[in-house]
Each structure stands twice: as C-alpha cells, then as structure tokens.
Design a protein that fits this description.
This protein is mostly helical and 404 residues long. It contains 18 helices and no strands. It has two domains: 184 residues, MFS general substrate transporter like domains (Growth Hormone, Chain: A); 192 residues, MFS general substrate transporter like domains (Growth Hormone, Chain: A, Up-down Bundle). 81% of the residues lie in helices and 0% in strands. The radius of gyration is 21 Å and the shape is globular. It starts with 11 loop residues before the first helix and ends with a helix.
Length: 404
C-alpha cells in the first residue's frame, strides 16, 4: 500500500532545492557565455559553435550519466553534477583561453545530463505514483524558476564586477545546490519497493542492452513522441527572438516579450501536475502540445510587437502546462531495476529531438523562409500530440506500469 503520510511539502527542500539552485546557476551564466566568447576574440560563427558545445556535451553524456547513477547512487551523482558544473563555469569565466573555454562549455552540458538524470531517477523512486506528476512538474518548475531568476541576479553582479560577476553567481548557486543535495537521504530501492508491496528477491543487475531490449516497445512508441516534443519545445526558444528580429523590433522589446512568455510558463507547472495525477496524462499532454503548436503556427502571421506577444504567450501557456510531462511519462514506464539506464536512453532521445528540431528550423529557413520553418515546427508539435495521444496508456495502466 502507498504510505498515507507521504507529503510533497515534507520532501520539498531536498527534492526541489538543488534543482532551483542549479537552474539559478545556469540561468546566471548562459546569457553571458556568448558575450564572453566574443570578448575573448571569437568570431560570431566560432561563438555559435562554442555555445552549441553545451548541447553536444549533454547529448553524449546521457548514457555515461546513467552508468554513473547506477554505480554511485542518485544522491552523490547529483552532488557530483553540481560540483562539475561549478568547475566548468570557473573554466569559462577565468581561463582566458578559447580552448579551455570550449572545454568548460562542453563540461556544462555534461553536468546538465548527469544532474538532470540523477534527480529524475531519485524522485521517480521516492514519490508514490499518486503524486508523481505533481512531483515531476514541480521538479521542472523549480528549474525554470531558477533559470528565470538567474539572469536578474547575474545582472546585479555584472553591474558591479563585470562579466565575471555572473560566473561568480553561478558558482555560488551550484555549490549551494551540491550542499543541499548532499543532505538528501540515500535511496534504498528495496525499502521503497517494500512500501509499494513489491518485496521480492533482488533481481539480476540490468545492463544497458537488457534495458533497451526489455523496454523497446516504450522507446519506439512513446519515445518517438518525446523526441518530437523536444524538437518543438527547443526551437520555440529560438523562434521568438528570430521573428522579433524579422519584424525589426528593438532588443529591449524582444527581451520583454520573451520574459513575459517565460513568466506565464513558470506559473502553470503545479496545476498541470495535479490534473495529470487526478485525471490522467492525456488531459495535459495533448492540450499542451496542441496549444503550443497553435501558438507556433500563429507566429509567422504576426506583424508587430503586440501580436507577437499574444503568440508568444500562447506558446508559453502550452509549454507551461506541459511542465514535467516528459519526466512523468518516463517515470511511469521506468522499471524499478535499471531505472537509471532507462532514463539515460529516454533523455538521449529527447536531446536528439532537440538537435533535430533546431537543424530542421535552420534547413527550412535557409531553403524556404523563416516563416515556413516556424510553421513546420508548429506541425511537429501537432504530430507529437497525435503520437502521444495514441500511445499514452489509460490511468489504470499507468499505475500498473509505474509499480512493476
């Protein structure tokens, strides 16, 4: 039986505190990374390459992150991810050499993969299925809140100390994240399974190949949907600034539109998680993707700041109500043994989708027009909605899969 005394509030600090601080640290440094590279003499193409190393670092580190989590445990993997990111930020901020700066950027991406996978695996194990969507949505929301706050804290530090002030904020936040994570209770899987009525002899330790084999149906069906979701979600962050530039809007106006859309995005994570827990995953996942797709299709039709703001807010609402949905679906289908391996593949598919989404936008914009590229991204969101609407199990099936 599920423990009646479980409360999200009771685990809030150890479960969500590290994510908020990690997001704050990354939010502080991500806007200044390209500025630092330019200040060090990098050309615009080289700067773009250096920034892209963050995504590449995350992409190639998902499987290694799952192996580290399996062998070292979630708690210390989370701590290691935060410390690793602090070291990476120090290299970016104080190395003074583009080669070391590139290494630091790559390490930031590595730390994202390690930290995110371990925190998702930890929460999937300790939170009962009745609270799972709320927990995962709050986990995603806490990271978004940190990413939102980070640039403002960094701006104050930059005003006083220059660009290095942002890196100082990032390092402080990440060390604080690691300190909070170190106080998390160790995850004892057998005890958790016993609470869920699953007490049984220890199974044979899984391998990556056995995880792929045993969960191939999930990866081929829901996994493809997650790949499509990630493609549309990632490109939305690029589309608003690009279209604002196409409309010749001032940078300050672009920033305001982007910030307001991000603010709406942040406010909806907990209600969305509650709906997923009470009514089922489809009730949030499908509307989220349909609303976001509609907003993306509306962007090429906008002609001024006001209409672009409306489209951006629609995109923010769609993305906001879907906060944590990819993590929730992953947790629903992750096995109790080999969970970290499963999440490694799950996150790898999401990162591949993100890379393909940006490449598709670039290809369509170069071949046709930017508006055509944005429209195709909207259609990808609708395609993701259809894929997941068909394959997401009903509520009873979710509960059964989550406790297998």
């Amino acid at each position: 039986m599920i423990p009646v005394a479980f409360s999200l509030r009771r685990i809030a600090l150890p479960a969500f505190g590290p994510s908020l601080l990690f997001g704050l640290g990354e939010g502080a440094i991500l806007p200044v990374i390209p500025l630092t590279a330019l200040a060090m003499g990098a050309s615009v193409p080289v700067t773009a390459l250096l920034v892209s190393l963050i995504g590449i670092g995350s992409l190639v580190s998902n499987i290694p992150a799952s192996l580290i989590t399996m062998h070292r445990g979630e708690r210390w993997t989370i701590v290691a991810g935060a410390i690793w990111c602090a070291v990476a930020i120090a290299l970016c901020g104080w190395s003074g050499h583009l080669g070391m700066f590139a290494v630091g950027s790559f390490m930031v991406g590595m730390s994202q993969a390690v930290f995110t996978l371990a925190r998702q695996s930890y929460l999937a194990a300790v939170v009962p299925v009745e609270f799972r969507a709320r927990a995962m949505s709050t986990l995603g929301g806490s990271m978004r809140i940190g990413m939102f706050i980070g640039p403002f804290v960094a701006a104050a530090a930059i005003h006083r100390y220059g660009l290095v002030g942002a890196y100082g904020v990032g390092i402080a936040a990440l060390l604080a994240s690691g300190t909070v994570a170190a106080r998390m209770p160790d995850l004892v899987v057998d005890a958790v399974d016993a609470d869920r009525g699953l007490a049984s002899p220890k199974p044979t330790p899984p391998t990556m190949l056995s995880t792929l084999r045993d969960n191939r149906h999930v990866f081929i069906t829901l996994g493809i949907g997650i790949l499509l979701v990630s493609a549309s979600r990632t490109t939305r962050q690029t589309i608003i600034p690009l279209w604002a530039d196409h409309l010749a809007l001032a940078p300050s106006v672009t920033s305001l539109i982007y910030g307001l859309a991000g603010g709406v995005d942040m406010l909806l994570f907990y209600p969305a998680g509650k709906v997923m827990d009470k009514l089922g995953r489809r009730w949030v996942v499908v509307p989220s993707l349909v609303i976001m797709g509609a907003g993306l299709l509306a962007v090429p039709l906008t002609r001024d700041a006001a209409t672009l703001l409306v489209a951006a807010m629609v995109i923010g609402i769609g993305n906001g109500i879907g906060s944590g949905m990819m993590m929730t679906l992953g947790a629903d289908h992750s096995p109790s043994t080999g969970r970290a391996h499963f999440f490694g593949v799950w996150r790898l598919m999401a990162d591949i989708g993100a890379s393909c989404g940006l490449a598709l936008l670039s290809l369509m914009a170069a071949t046709f027009t930017l508006g055509a590229g944005i429209a195709v991204t909207g259609l990808v969101s609708f395609l993701a909605a259809g894929q997941l609407a068909y394959w997401i199990p009903r509520v009873k099936s979710q509960a059964r899969d989550a406790t297998r």
